[in-house]
Amino acid sequence: MDRHRLTQQIKAEAKSLGFDVCGIAKAEAVSKETITYYSHWTCDGKHGTMQYLERNCDKRFDPTVLVNGCRSIIVVALNYAPRQGIEGISRYAIGEDYHKIVKDKLYKLLGTIDAVIPTKGRAFCDSAPVLEKYWAVMAGIGWIGRNRQLTIPGKGSYFFLGELLIDRELEYDTPFTSNHCGNCNKCIENCPTGALCKESFDARKCLSYLTIEHRGELPENIGGKMGKCFYGCDRCLEACPHNRFATPSSTPQFQPSDELKQMKWKDWHSLTEEKYHKLFSRSAVERCGYRQLMRNISIMKTEN
Ligand code: SF4
Ligand code: SF4
Predict the structure, then answer these.
(1) Which residues form the domain of 87?
(2) Residues carrying an active site annotation
(3) How far apart are CA 251 and CA 254, in angstroms?
(4) Starting from the edge strand earliest in sequence, which strands make up the sheet with 159-166, in order?
(5) Is ligand 1 within 6 A of the CB of residue 222?
(6) Residue 60: Cβ within 10 Å count
(7) Does residue 227 lie within any of the structural domains?
(8) Would residue 276 count as lying in a domain?
(9) Is residue 122, in this structure, part of any structural domain at all?
(10) pLDDT tens-digit map of 170-216
(11) Nearest-ligand number for the alpha carbon of 193
């Protein structure tokens, strides 16, 4: 099969698997500017205690080191916006854990490609040193907004990204070189902690990092800035005018369970460990742990 037909077939199959967008980039070392930005970001300590971001830079900066013999990166985006939000929890974490859902779909895609022409590959979703947003830009899917999220024109930024690295050459999309943020600063203005600025992002100040990734004590003054966010924070996404175009996800696993929908605000303060595991056994929230979730809930300065 020729490259063009194979590429078209892969994109059609990605769509039928439920992915909203699929783009393809040539596997090669990332740009020098990206390496410089990333290296300065970690050297400045803006990644906080996420030390894994300092490791495996040879693989992070070159996917052909991560997956030997890889030639193409198929990048997919999957809408996660739930039909109904749950107060306090970031939209992406309301449903089932996305890592497995996205990777399972990508391995199905690999199976389809392999059935057409023998192909080896590996699938990733926030699970390896892959610069996901960079590759989404290179695959022509969207641009990285000032909120540091991959933003897809006409669709917004409530999307999980996944990558399938394969040893076949394909037709490549044109990288998305324009930035549609224009003069907008809404995400920066609406960030309660000053984690965002035009040039960079400081994870150490970000509520998503503090409530999910950061172990140990939270900064003293953070409770008043959390509002009702006890797991993640969506304020820089909610402020983005491009998310006016967001539509609910058609993936049933990303909708909240009936039990989660029944939780009232006061119930969170008396959440038991047993109930926590019942609510979140299949969710990304399980990764944070009961104690940490209760740490977040207890520090919030809300009256109701
Ligand atoms: S997630 Fe919240 S705290 Fe973090 S950058 Fe966005 S608005 Fe700021
Ligand atoms: S809120 Fe404005 S500046 Fe921020 S990502 Fe969206 S368009 Fe860009």
Answers:
(1) 3-166
(2) 126
(3) 6
(4) 21-26, 72-79, 159-166, 121-124
(5) no
(6) 21
(7) no
(8) no
(9) yes
(10) 999 999 999 999 999 999 999 999 999 988 899 999 999 999 999 98
(11) 1
